[in-house]
Structures are given as C-alpha cells and as structure tokens.
Amino acid sequence: RCAVDPLAVYSALRPTGACALHESADLHEDPALCSMQRSILVPRALLRFELRAEELTIRLVDESARPFLARLVEDEGYEAHAEDKDALRARAPIEARDQLLDDEERLRGDPALAALRRFSQLIVDARGSDASMAAGAFGALAYDFVDRFEELPPRRDEDAVGDPDAVFVLASDALVFSPALGEVEVITRGL
After folding, report:
1. 115-118 long-range Cβ contacts below 8 angstroms, 24+ apart
2. Model pTM?
3. Which residues are CB-neighbours of 131 under 8 A, at least 6 positions away?
4. What is the rounded CA–CA span in Å between residue 76 and residue 111?
5. Tell me: the pLDDT tens digits for 146-168?
6. What confidence tens digit (pLDDT) does each residue in 28-37 have?
C-alpha cells in the first residue's frame, strides 16, 4: 500500500487554490487490476474545460494561464464569454451519426473531443518524457457524453443532477498515486 494518502494531500493543498483529485472508483482484489488503479492529484489547475450538450466553456482558474485564453481566441476561434471576462465559449455540435464510420473515425471527428485534444496540447513538454503519464488535461466524461455517438431517446428537459457532459482541468503538474505499487510519481512541466 502507498504510504501517502492522496485525500490527505488534497485536503492539505485545497486551501492554497484550485486543485483537483481524480481517483479510481473500484477497489479490485485481482492484483492485475489493482496495479492499474491510480489517483491523480492536480495541485494547481490552470484552466477548466466544461461541456454541456453542445456548449463548450473554458474558464480561467489560475491567472498564470491567461495567455492560453488569448491563444484559444486567436488560434481556435473561441469567443469571449459575454458575462465573464475569465471565460471563453464555443459550440461543439452533435453531428449526424454516420453508421458507416468505425468507432475510431467517430472519436476523431467529434468536435468536442477535437476541442479537448487541442486543450490538452496547450502544455507541451518539448524535452520529451519517460513519465508514465504527461501533464495536460485531467478529468472525466459523464455517461451522457454517449449522446454524441449513439441514437438514444431524447434527454429530459431538466438534468436532475446538473453535471456537465465532460469536465477537465489543464495542469502543468500532477502527482500520480499508485497504491498497489506503493509509488507516487511527480510530473512537472512548470510554465
């Protein structure tokens, strides 16, 4: 077992600013599956990527990332958010589902995933890395994200929980906890 508790580290860092903790949900008895479990702690989030249906918002979390917002407007065509100077908006339309496309082509062609790929590439490690994971975008896709790929009955008008379809944070640094291996990997790409 890993001697460092990711939740304890998160709790200690939380008062210092915007940090995020992503953990594996299942605890497996099978050693092969258990060795794949990870907790990823982002000590300082820079930007937040949020998708709700076809509306994509990127919000500034840390002032040091403000140049990224300007770059997204200039290079990617994002628009400034009318009510929030620290946010950008874009549309990520759900396109017609071509049943002849294979899964890889669908994933490559989806506007929301294309935007997420560009978002995650805002931080590039020019030196190369042998880390098991690179700094970049960390987050989750909600179950409702499947609406982008499968014909399903329409959603109810009101989402009872109100969670986004996707939410990611951009980070230059991360701690990767591997409890079964008793390891903590530090990834840093300081700005």
Report:
1. 115/49, 115/56, 115/76, 115/90, 116/49, 116/166, 116/168, 118/76
2. 0.79
3. 185, 187
4. 12
5. 878 777 777 666 666 778 988 99
6. 566 565 566 7
